[in-house]
Write a structure and sequence with these properties.
Elements lengths: L4 E2 L3 E9 L3 E8 L4 E8 L7 H14 L10 E7 L2 E7 L3 E3 H8 L4 H20 L12 E4 L4 E3 L4 H8 L4 H7 L5 H4 L6 H17 L9 H10 L5 H4 L5 H10 L11 H13 L24 H43 L16 E3 L8 H9 L4 E7 L9 E4 L6 E3 L5 E7 L15 H10 L3 E7 L9 E5 L12 E7 L6 E3 L8 H10 L3 E6 L9 E6 L5 E3 L3 E7 L4 E8 L11 E10 L6 E9 L5 E8 L3 E8 L2 E9 L10
Helix pairs in contact: 1-4, 3-7, 3-11, 7-10, 10-11
Amino acid sequence: MEGRILGNRYEIIKKIGDGGMAHVYKAKCRLLNRYVAVKILKSEFIHDQEFVKRFRIEGQAAASLSHPNIVSIYDVGKEDDIHYIVMEYIDGITLKEYIASRGRLDWEEAVRIAIQICSAIEHAHKNYIIHRDIKPQNIMMTVDGMVKVTDFGIARAVTSSTITMVGNTMGSVHYFSPEQARGGYVDQQSDLYSLGIVIYEMVTGQCPFNGDAPVAVALQHIQNAPTPPIKLNSSIPIGVNDIIMKAIEKNTKNRYQTATQMLSDLYKVLKQPDLHFRNVVDDTSPKTIRLTAIGDTELQEREESDISNRKAKRKRRDRTILSAILVSIIIISVFVVIGYKIVLPEIYTGTSSNTIKVQDYVGRNFYEVKEELEKYNIRVIDHWEYNEEVKKDVIVSQSVLPGVEFIIDGYNQIEFRVSMGPERITIPDVENMEYREAERQLLYLGLKTKVLEEYSDTIPVNHVIRTDPSKGTSESAPGDEVIIYKSIGPKIEQTTVPDLTGMTLAEATAELEKHKLKVGALSPDDEVSKIATIKEHFPKAGEVVDEGTAVALVFDMATAQITITHEFDLSNPDDYERDSVKFLVEIKQSNQKNAEMLINKRVSKDEFPIFLEIPIPANGYTDVLVLVDNKPYDRFRLNFSDYKDRVGQ
């Protein structure tokens, strides 16, 4: 297959994978000069016309989806016995491989991945497309961390016509909803059940139900209650556990009714992990009959019976269709006979006057082509898509190959994929938003993000200052990078610690303020006197530190004292015969062992009163002894507490 060119456009390069129904190849689109992935149906399915029909219809339906988390389908075609689908090429690995490489994922990462998957499912459901085979193998993880869900719509063709695909079923049955396991009606809630199983596997590293055979696993989906994931991984918040258990409820009334509801809860649980989300409905309607355990043989007999019934219905439908075709042929023949002489214009080099030949319309203006074709009652169906290389309103591809002949007025139709021009995204206003929430919003829009840190005096730490491109700009394409400038708070300058040794607390405080520093812890822990001086501090003098750093101060309490001026007088000078007296004053401070002499000399009686400065230690006292002519004259004590109000004066 390598080297072959399909549709005169897609050059097969190499095989990159296998699925249950198709081989997957990397290819090069020669027209748009880009890499694509081409899914080619396996040979065992090409002769099943019912399956091939569904394969094409569902592929074309899925091609109408346009979402950043869905792998885009570009083309559906057939060449010889090769039926193929052309889709977006993803450079990455499957979610299954990612889980295997990690063992299990952190719950926040798992929820963010689930949000992208659920967003894709929501978009598909709003377009009336149900996936039917949500599983990690169908979810791609790009190198940029984006999630891409593949095979939308294709699963319907598979489940309708390839019941015996054991290999594929074994991979899918672990994610089947109970109604799928029973072969019942499948709707949007089946996709949400499967997503619940995928989240379960992401946070626990295993599926809730396992077995050696698909039948055994299917029965567990129908009959067994799953082990709550929080019991397998205690780090899972109760809110995440509730969302998973609600999604995989066997009773559909107790499940999420829409992807929008589930998506809303996934967003909420990121902000409120401990919020409860389960609200089980008390279903008073007739209960589903619990199946007794049955063997593989009995289940196979039931399956064969179902297949026989479907084949019988198909035969009756085919007979009805055949009858309708015969009637149509007869009616058309009558009109041909009646109007064979009418001369019809020959259009587009048609081979006869009542037919037109389909041309190659790719590259032409859609509205011009539509006007031409509708003149001949050819129904034109348009599918619009963003395209980086093709201008707006220009046709990208067509469903009917050039050269095919249409009978004029034959109720024909042709589908076109039409370019909307390059997709451009308007940058939302995320300023002042917490930067991780801003990242989430930008990633949801299909943009890449890069976070840079920047100082800010006004924006709180970890909040967005601005983006580049700025808010409101409409020039970004999907995959473009948006730079988020995250605040790390005000810019902090550095300063040098001054030498505070010998300073009092007041002096040190003033000096620290000059250097944009502040006072830290004080020691000793008891009350520090305002007159005590600093003997050391940390950080030390000369160290370079950030502005605003607190400096711890250690005081020398021996230096913590006040000095008062005390008046000494002679009460009865005439009692002394001489004109002078020998005057002695001795002091002893409470924090010192030895006494200290303040004065010891003869003093004229006329010099009295005498004023002497007496030191008092902080929180202590000083004893004073006075001798006159070597005789005791006075003794008293000066207490620090009596003079506290003088501190700092």
